[in-house]
């Protein structure tokens, strides 16, 4: 065995170890969701156990708001992100193509809203929503999430749009296309990786959002993070079976999304600069 | 359709890209614009197509002022310098694009795409997507798309640049016959001497956004009005030698030419390679060492070094045998074959002799 292949094996060993280390809590949660309460808390932890589906049946059976919470999570994130991506695409198109004076400054201002920690804005937002009578309203919450998702999407999409040559637009215009034609039929189809990247990033943000849902939302808009926070101590002590089961269900959609679109995610993290790889 | 530019001016910041250009182009003509890079030919075409707005002046298309009309409503076919093929469409869909936008019936589109693809020999590529094509194939697809526009004015911005020699020669013929067949007005930009000489009915030489010569191929070749015209048109390239004149004598490289002109100053003299007669003795004689001989089949191109001044001579094979490598050769140039240009403005001053 030569030194080169030994080095390679070493790399893989380290990579595997790191991955396992990071995956361990996820594995623990997923495994726990199939264990009884006693098995979860057993010392030493049980790796071999007889799996049970009681926790899942319990969740659907006893916890009457689970379906509402899951549906809320899906509806809130999907609609907010779709609105955000559509608005951001048009905004990014203008920034990229018409380059208004101070584009860089405007882009910075746009992103600065995300530089504030959420607790710093929660109070004014709460007062505003309370006064407008927007508390516990799906539409109001969707608009808030969309507003919060737009800056980052504009940044991602502008990076991708700058990579789509203006020559494409020109060819469309010269051959008799309108601006709408250029935007939606010429540029949009070439932006698929950017749209998917923006979509996933914001999806993750809204999917995981707890604070605003808890304070600005209400009973009818509660999502899964809300349910986890509220349900954890619901039966006196720490309700491990509930936490494990709900968390397992909760992480499936993002994992599926990310697995399917992971190459776009990388492109999105670099604002489209590795477009060639996609 | 006729095209006319009236005192057209376009600036990019401080750069003058088009400098009050006046030009009338006859309907159904084939006009070639020739000039060094950045001479303004692409900008002129972009102005005509509507992708740039002039700072002043106007563009008249068949009697209608189109200066303020958007590109979509100008009805000018455009083959851009960059291919800009849509990656999400197949070659067929790319070529059909102008017709699809114009909502033409499907069978008409199919017929016209097939024909254009046939002429450009890309029929076998129609189902592929552009990322699978070579550079030349992309270029031909872009040409086909540009020509399928329902226009009677076509603007071709250096469409054959970089294609291989054989294909280029064939496409030059095809473009010419297509123009006759469509009865369309073609404006064609190139920096290639061969394309200009082969295709132009009218040749316009541009330099720094100005028209420096305008005429038939013969006129531009035989009577260049401007340094750029002499430099760009003709192969092998003309010899251009910097020099200066004062007190009735012009000195440039190995040449001493009597010149009667009042203002002394810097000049550039131009001599066509075929005007340098090896072994000749008529006119101004000098000698040089042979550095390289290229046999082009029908002619020899001889690269000479005359006291540090590089010169190119060309003469038909058969007139005399090829000179030996590194041999010393006497040569002569008739004074009337020497064209003298002002070094500053590039304008022609005169010839070595009337």
UniProtKB/TrEMBL annotation, chain A:
The chain crosses the membrane at residues 12-31, 66-93, 105-127, 139-157, 195-220, 240-261. CDD domains: TM_PBP2. Keywords: Cell membrane, Membrane, Transmembrane, Transmembrane helix, Transport. Coiled coil: none annotated. Its main location: membrane. It is found in: Cell membrane. InterPro entries: BP-dep_ABC_trans_perm, MetI-like, MetI-like_sf. GO terms for biological process: transmembrane transport. GO terms for cellular component: plasma membrane. It comes from the Bacteria. Belongs to the binding-protein-dependent transport system permease family. It comes from Pelagibius litoralis. This is Carbohydrate ABC transporter permease. It is a multi-pass membrane protein. Residues 70-261 form the ABC transmembrane type-1 domain.
From TrEMBL, chain B:
One of its GO terms (molecular function) is ATP hydrolysis activity. Residues 3-233 form the ABC transporter domain. SUPFAM superfamilies: MOP-like (SSF50331), P-loop containing nucleoside triphosphate hydrolases (SSF52540). Pfam families: ABC_tran, TOBE_2. GO terms for cellular component: ATP-binding cassette (ABC) transporter complex, substrate-binding subunit-containing. The keyword Nucleotide-binding applies. Belongs to the ABC transporter superfamily. This is ABC transporter ATP-binding protein. It comes from Pelagibius litoralis.
């Amino acid at each position: 065995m030569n030194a080169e292949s030994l080095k390679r094996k070493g790399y893989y060993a380290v990579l595997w170890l790191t991955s396992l280390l990071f995956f361990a809590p996820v594995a623990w949660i997923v495994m726990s969701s199939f264990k009884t309460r006693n098995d979860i808390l057993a010392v030493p932890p049980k790796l071999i156990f007889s799996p049970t589906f009681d926790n899942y049946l319990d969740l659907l059976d006893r916890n009457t708001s689970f379906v509402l919470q899951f549906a809320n999570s899906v509806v809130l994130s999907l609609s907010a992100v779709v609105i955000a991506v559509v608005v951001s695409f048009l905004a990014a198109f203008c920034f990229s193509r018409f380059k208004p004076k101070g584009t860089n400054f405007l882009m910075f201002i746009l992103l600065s809203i995300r530089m504030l920690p959420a607790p710093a804005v929660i109070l004014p937002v709460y007062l505003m929503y309370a006064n407008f009578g927007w508390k516990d309203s799906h539409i109001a919450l969707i608009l808030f999430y969309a507003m919060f998702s737009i800056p980052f999407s504009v940044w991602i999409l502008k990076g991708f749009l700058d990579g789509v040559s203006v020559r494409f637009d020109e060819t469309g215009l010269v051959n008799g296309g309108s601006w709408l034609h250029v935007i939606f039929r010429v540029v949009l189809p070439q932006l698929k990786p950017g749209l998917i990247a923006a979509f996933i990033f914001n999806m993750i943000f809204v999917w995981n959002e707890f604070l605003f849902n808890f304070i600005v939302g209400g009973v009818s808009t509660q999502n899964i993070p809300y349910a986890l926070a509220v349900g954890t101590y619901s039966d006196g002590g720490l309700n491990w079976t509930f936490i494990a089961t709900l968390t397992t269900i909760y992480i499936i959609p993002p994992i599926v999304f990310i697995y399917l679109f992971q190459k776009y995610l990388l492109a999105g993290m670099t604002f489209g600069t590795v477009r060639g790889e996609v | 359709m006729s095209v006319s530019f009236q005192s057209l001016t376009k600036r990019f910041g401080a750069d003058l890209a088009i400098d009050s250009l006046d030009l009338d182009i006859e309907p159904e003509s084939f006009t070639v614009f020739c000039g060094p890079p950045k001479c303004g030919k692409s900008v002129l075409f972009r102005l005509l197509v509507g992708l740039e707005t002039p700072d002043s002046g106007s563009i008249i298309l068949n009697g209608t002022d189109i200066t303020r009309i958007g590109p979509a409503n100008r009805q000018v076919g455009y083959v851009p310098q960059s291919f800009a093929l849509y990656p999400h469409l197949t070659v067929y869909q790319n070529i059909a694009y102008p017709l699809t936008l114009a909502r033409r019936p499907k069978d008409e589109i199919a017929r016209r795409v097939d024909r254009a693809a046939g002429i450009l020999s890309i029929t076998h590529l129609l189902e592929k997507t552009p990322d699978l094509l070579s550079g030349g194939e992309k270029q031909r697809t872009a040409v086909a798309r540009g020509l399928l526009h329902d226009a009677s004015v076509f603007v071709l911005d250096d469409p054959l640049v970089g294609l291989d020699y054989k294909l280029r020669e064939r496409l030059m013929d095809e473009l010419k016959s297509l123009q006759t067949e469509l009865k369309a007005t073609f404006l064609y930009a190139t920096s290639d001497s061969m394309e200009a000489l082969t295709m132009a009915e009218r040749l316009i030489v541009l330099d720094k956004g100005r028209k420096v010569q305008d005429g038939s191929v013969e006129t531009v070749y035989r009577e260049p009005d401007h340094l750029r015209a002499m430099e760009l048109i003709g192969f092998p390239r003309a010899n251009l030698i910097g020099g200066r004149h004062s007190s009735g004598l012009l000195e440039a490289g190995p040449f001493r030419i009597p010149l009667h002109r009042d203002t002394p100053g810097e000049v550039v003299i131009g001599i066509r390679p075929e005007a340098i007669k090896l072994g000749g003795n008529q006119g101004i004689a000098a000698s040089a060492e042979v550095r390289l001989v290229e046999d082009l089949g029908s002619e020899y191109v001889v690269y000479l070094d005359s006291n540090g001044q590089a010169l190119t001579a060309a003469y038909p094979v058969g007139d005399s045998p090829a000179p030996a490598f590194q041999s010393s050769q006497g040569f002569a140039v008739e004074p009337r074959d020497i064209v003298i240009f002002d070094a500053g403005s590039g304008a022609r001053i005169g010839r070595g002799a009337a």
